[in-house]
Design goal:
The complex is a heterotetramer, with two copies of chain A and two copies of chain B. Chain A is of the alpha/beta class. Chain A has two domains: 195 residues, Rossmann fold (3-Layer(aba) Sandwich); 129 residues, 3-Layer(aba) Sandwich (Rossmann fold), CATH 3.40.50.920. Chain A is built from twelve helices and 14 strands. Chain A has a seven-stranded mixed sheet with strand order 3-2-4-5-7-6-12, sandwiched between helices. Chain A has a five-stranded mixed sheet with strand order 9-11-10-13-14, sandwiched between helices. The longest helix of chain A is centred in the last third of the chain and has 16 residues. Chain A starts with a strand and ends with a helix. The mean pLDDT of chain A is 97. In chain B, α1 packs antiparallel against α10. Chain B has eleven helices and seven strands. The radius of gyration of chain B is 19 Å and the shape is globular. The N and C termini of chain B lie far apart (47 Å). The chains are: A alpha/beta, B alpha/beta. At the A-C interface, α4, α6 and α10 of A face α4, α6 and α10 of C. The complex binds thiamine diphosphate (2 copies) and magnesium ion (2 copies).
Chain lengths: 340, 318, 340, 318
């Protein structure tokens, strides 16, 4: 067992998978440069030493290299494509949404497109174009799986599953969870490191996890928000409020069973998401609950989310923008007080 | 280049097969029997046949919203193509693709990408796979003149160049992107001039001369296969049909259209074959066979069942 | 009064606005070509005659010309940008999502970006890349208003408001509603023509409308689905079920008041949308109802939507894919039978 | 070109103002006082000052993730810039933009677009507006070498060319896009060669020689203003700082970096001014004034209030 940060765990997953299968390769900007950073957040740092031919450093041409990843996957390669910031997925959106997500379906199932897309997300004082939570833009896009690991353990296990999956998978990595160590760690980082077993393991895509058991309110949250939800639960526990925190870990497919069981028990649900409220992942979760589990509910559903604006730069504004532990607690208290 | 008669006749057969296929499809549309929309290939047959004849088994192409000619030139089964057009389960994409997404990877055809410029990076990625896997295959990327104004053209050619990938980019310059004449949307006189921005060879040739297309394609394909990198090949041709299903193409000047029809590749190649001493009867025979083949394809398609509604839910994930 | 199709009404709106304000111009592919089609669906047909310098025909360069529209808007022009099919918005997604939607906000409100984006949507036998309902991809993007007119009257009035709005506005036009006349009309078109008053009018963005009054179930639907919902209501009326059909007409901002009043009355709600269910516009509508109006509900919310796959080509599949009148009726009966 | 001493000293002052501003900002970051991230401009000052000095009131620029130099060269208020960096309400974007989105349209600076290549179409659209409104203004589009590999570069230059727009595309080739050397990502030796694909003039000059930059920019800007269309100007320079905040730039070879520092524009221009007989004291005086100005800006910024949390919700729609 060794304690690894998320960045280290991701790197280890990539390394192990590249050793296991020579078809796995990485493609993206500023990777494999001696003296460079291993992508924007060190995840691929140093991998070029062991795999000099399988770390492909690209020009700044996102649409191009996403399409290249797709083309290469049709001949058996298994690209791990990364963008430096999730926001830049928009530059490659046609390749992702119109091609990568659809080519297998259009072929009548005759093709496989095993592609992993790695995208860092999260608000970190960089303003509107280097911050967005990109999940909502892909949740509504059929044809791609989505994983959102919140710990180092999950990051490794889920990324390995993603690499082995024969379908396109996007992994959203949170900038504030990569690790508090190292030159490229972020102000405001949270420790999401884990003990990583010596022996190999994977985590199935589509299985959520209960991060904390509780009986009064179910709180559903991923990535950074999962950590904030746990902190809120900790504080509320002292008030005698018992929170069950669910981390879906995958958005597509989604572990509805886990949510159902929890809501059956608690009758109340708060969904926390870092992106703007309108059309976010919380909308889909709330809608499905309202369709299929409404009978369990003894209170209105609550969403805690960012406001419907781009991300502001000023720390004074960003602090208000990103859902806080306080806002989570308020929402929990609200659903309790509104219970029938 | 000296080419055997058999091969010449095979070029002829394929060009005629494309033409007759497209004419039959047009008719089926006009009759209202065929669903969807189509972009047809009449007039450009020498491009598909010339280029694809230069390929070997294992080579791969990407194609566009106007894919029928390329598919046939690569040897795809026209029964399965016709069934696909009719949305039947026996189609090459099991009815999920339709005209704009025709393909059969077994035959070296990636399902067509109907986003203009969308296939250029994909072909480039095929080239990258061949290089990384040390396979001696070549990827050919078909595109129209209009596609060369998309950003993906620039990004892809640049990456193919810096990585020295085995990709031949084939621009079929038919002088129109939909209703827009090429002179309205770029200033270069030859699209092949753009190759210099990536330091790759760019050449422009008569795209209606199937032998010229074949021999120059072979040159560039073999150059790529030998590890000498990508190239841009511009084929000058003309779309003698509308852009899509119901386009009367009123924006094409009469004079221009007339000249183009004079210059169309099958007419020209027929003359050439006859000048070699091949009899009209031989050619007619080929045509007849082709027509029978097409009628069989139509029958096969129309006799084939539709996919069942629930098939909609399949083929999304492996 | 004259009866106009949606395409004609849109054209009239553009013409009137171009006459009114010389800063308004159109930019896109295959517009303004003599003998051409006036865009993919005739909306701008012939406008080049009156405005030769203000119909800008572009190369096939979506990212480029969307950014050009933005740049020009900073100097007082008011571009109406069109893509031939909504699906191609993905090619310009960076310009739309990272620039157009955010530039005003990033400037601290010092800039105005009056841009209208016109995008045809709807499944019409063209397969996966020429069919998508694009609303969900923009609903979750703060900074752009969204309108979805279902009739010729609304198309004219809303497009005129959009052109006059100082913010970016996307108008989603449905291919099957443009009109049943003319060479470029679509198989399966529905007549959405209206009597258009002689005198000028506009329709405020953000105001929905009740298309049919009813008391048992509220059905919310836009564009083609609104028409199908009305047909379903007609049939169900014969069974004695009274449907209230709400057409929000704008998605951003959304007329929550109208929905609230209706649900207060009916206690039941069915949301119909043409896009895949996961993360669609129905999710946001259902979620907000579950948060804010749950006390009115006497039955679970139901969504009727396409399945979570790309669009198939075969008519046999497309028929199953696109929500039908039958499926709407089934959902209505279901919410009635599940009522508490 | 003969330039008056006053103007030369103004060039000097602006270059020094940029340098000192950036050095002060770096220090504030290292101290941990300043939030966010930064991409700094040290070493490229001659580019911003040379180009922007060729512009007139009404002309507009777009800038990138590395905008401070351009903003200062356009005459933006450094108080407002500093306040923006500190996220204060008095900032040029009221604290909403930060380093990467600096701008002030009143001064001709569109808020910076930090998506590489993202500003190229926007500048082109400004050019279109000037042309359509028959205004004699010019748009200048700043970009890095790395940006020229984005598809938007290709699409935008093509449209500027076919419509003959008054846009000057300025590539500051500092030989790196983040950690990636330009030679790894393109094969052309001169980025200006790419202009030929759009049939516009492309020239490459020494970007560390402020007078050369000024005079050639003036030429191209006035050419555009006169209705003779767009051009591509490549400025050879060097980034003598890290790519961003915490980048030690270990990938830049020592030798190369040393030579670049020898060749940096302020050092060179200082020598030149002294060779003209301008006294070191005069230059020192300018520097001192600049430093005072900067300290005032820091004070102004740090004394300014933050926006209130609810301001987050403002400025989204008009
Ligand atoms: C990204 C994108 N933009 C626009 C279209 C609509 N469209 C389909 S074909 C076409 C013209 C293509 O011209 P060209 O590349 O010359 O090919 P050709 O049709 O001449 O074969 C256009 C504009 C599209 N399919 N994709
Ligand atoms: C679309 C996009 N891709 C990647 C990045 C991350 N990034 C920021 S700056 C940069 C390098 C830019 O290089 P260049 O254009 O040469 O400008 P320079 O930094 O040298 O001024 C990269 C890759 C980005 N901001 N936008
Ligand atoms: Mg063409
Ligand atoms: Mg650079």
């Amino acid at each position: 067992m060794a304690r690894l940060t998320v960045a280290e765990a991701l790197r280890q997953a990539i390394k192990e998978e590249m050793r296991r299968d020579e078809n796995v390769y990485c493609i993206g900007e500023d990777i494999g440069i001696p003296g460079g950073w291993g992508g924007a957040f060190t995840v691929t740092l140093g991998l070029e030493k062991e795999f000099p031919d399988r770390i492909i450093n690209t020009p700044i041409s996102e649409a191009g290299f996403f399409g290249i990843a797709l083309g290469s996957s049709l001949k058996g390669l298994r690209p791990i494509v990364d963008v430096q910031y999730g926001d830049f997925l928009f530059c490659a959106m046609d390749q992702i949404a119109n091609q990568i997500a659809k080519l297998r379906y259009m072929s009548g199932g005759k093709l496989k497109t095993p592609i992993v897309i790695r995208a860092p997300v999260g608000f970190t004082g960089r303003g509107a174009q280097h911050s967005q939570m990109m999940e909502p833009f892909f949740l509504c896009l059929p044809g791609i799986k989505i994983i959102t690991p919140a710990t180092a353990y999950d990051s490794k296990g889920l990324l390995k599953s993603a690499v082995r999956d024969d379908n396109p998978v996007i992994i959203f990595e949170h900038k504030l969870l990569y690790g508090a160590k190292g030159a490229r760690s972020e102000a405001g980082s949270i420790d999401a490191s884990s003990e990583i077993p010596e022996e190999e393991y994977t985590i199935p895509i589509g299985k959520g996890i209960i991060r904390r058991e509780g009986t009064d309110v179910t709180v559903i949250a991923t990535l950074l928000m999962m950590h904030k939800a746990c902190e809120a639960a900790e504080i509320l526990a002292r008030e005698g409020i018992s929170i069950e925190v669910i981390d879906p870990r995958s958005l597509v497919p989604f572990d509805w069973e886990l949510v159902r069981k929890s809501i059956e028990k608690t009758g109340r649900v708060v969904i926390v998401e870092e992106s703007p409220r309108r059309g976010g992942i919380g909308a889909e979760i709330a809608a499905t609950i309202a369709e299929e589990m409404i009978d369990f509910l003894i209170a209105p559903i609550k969403r805690v989310a960012a406001p419907d604006t781009p991300a502001p730069f000023s720390p004074a504004l960003e602090k208000f923008y990103v859902p806080s532990i306080e806002k989570i607690m308020t929402a929990v208290r609200e659903v309790i007080s509104l219970s029938s | 280049m000296d080419i055997e008669t058999d091969k010449l006749l095979e070029f002829y057969r394929k060009m005629v097969l494309i033409r007759e296929f497209e004419e039959r499809v047009k008719f089926l549309f006009l009759e209202g029997i065929m669903p969807g929309t189509i972009h047809q290939y009449q007039g450009q047959e020498a491009c598909a046949v010339g280029v694809c004849s230069a390929l070997k088994k294992g080579d791969v192409i990407t194609t566009t919203h106007r894919p029928h000619g390329h598919c046939i030139a690569m040897g795809m089964d026209i029964k399965e193509m016709m069934a696909e057009l009719f949305g039947r389960i026996t189609g090459c994409c099991r009815g999920k693709g339709g005209s704009m997404h025709m393909g059969d990877i077994e035959k070296g055809v990636v399902p067509a990408i109907a986003i203009v410029g969308g296939g250029i990076p994909v072909a480039t990625g095929l080239g990258l796979a061949f290089k990384m896997k040390k396979q001696n295959y070549v990827a050919v990327c078909f595109m129209g003149d209009g596609a060369t104004n998309e950003g993906t053209f620039h990004e892809s050619l640049n990456m193919a160049s810096i990585w020295n990938l085995p990709v031949v980019y084939v621009v079929e310059n038919n002088f129109y992107g939909a209703s827009t004449h090429v002179s309205l949307v770029m200033k270069v006189e030859r699209i092949s001039e753009r190759a210099s921005a990536y330091r790759m060879p760019g050449i422009t040739i008569d795209g209606n001369d199937v032998l010229e297309v074949y021999s120059r394609s072979l040159e560039l394909v073999e150059r790529a296969r030998a590890g000498n990198g990508p190239a841009l090949l511009e084929l000058l041709t003309y779309r003698i049909t509308g852009h899509s299903r119901r386009d009367p193409a009123l924006y094409q000047p009469q004079e221009e259209k007339k000249k183009a029809i004079e210059n169309e590749p099958i007419k020209r190649f027929t003359k050439y074959l006859i000048s070699l001493g091949i009899s009209e009867a031989t050619l007619e025979q080929i045509k007849d066979k082709v027509r029978i083949e097409i009628e069989e394809a139509v029958k096969f398609a129309m006799d084939s069942p539709y996919p069942s509604p629930e098939d909609t839910l399949k083929d999304i994930f492996v």
